[in-house]
Amino acid sequence: MILLAAWAGSAHAAEGDPDLPADAWAQDDVVVPEDDEEEAPPEEEEAPAEEEEAPPEEEAPIGDPLSEHRVTLDLLADRTIGTTSRPVEFNWRRNTAQLALTGSYLFELNNFNAMRGGGMLRVPTRGIMLEVGLSYAATWDSPSSRLIALTPYRQPGRPPRLELDFMVALPLAEGVVTTQLRVFPAVQMVFNAYGGVRYALYPAGFAGLTAGQVTSRIFVPALSEEEIDNLEASRLDAMQVDPARYSILVGIGNDLYFKGGIFIAPRFLLSVPLLSTANDSQLLLWADASVAIGVAW
Question: How far is 250 from 198, CA to CA, in rounded Å?
């Protein structure tokens, strides 16, 4: 009875009071602020995303005009090492001319001794070096050649003479180097390949010849019989005069430039027997070890 009365009273209250919801018992569990709390997390997730995009704007260089020109050391080395276009210590390409004193020793594959001494003019042009040199070549006996003179045998050789050199030096590599002795400053080293022609001039060979004969024979690759006969008095006892007038030389060498313009240029040249058929030379292979000391301006 008591339960029926309570049920009836609640039903009457629900019908009589329209403001009171029918499921008032269930509304006690509904909390409105929970809807607000569920919408909050998306707002909290968007905030960190905006903070993560900020650092790139802060890391961007501001006020550094050289930033776009900066390169790594490896890339810089690849661009410069091995090139010959930008001298560092001494710019020999901008020189007007160079003068040098030269000296060399000849290895002619015989028993005679021969040395050269003279001067050289060097002119840089278009990234290469042009050289014109004039030297006097002296020859003298050795103990072996004196013994050979006592026999009927003779060796090919060349008497004392003047020599004209026309050479071209092609730079292959260059850079600043330091010496083992610290008393010497750093120098600009240029590694060159050489090629050119050497002309042997025998003034004594023109004795008794007219000017026309000298002019006509001066460009002939080999000495004439008259010139060889005229050189009998100047040749060594064990020597057979080699008739070659022109020789083709190739080789390598270094130019060491000090900052003030003084340079030292050692080189090693080898005679190539390309003209042996034309000049009847018996000295097919011979070498020249030389050094030049001069100044550039």
Answer: 11
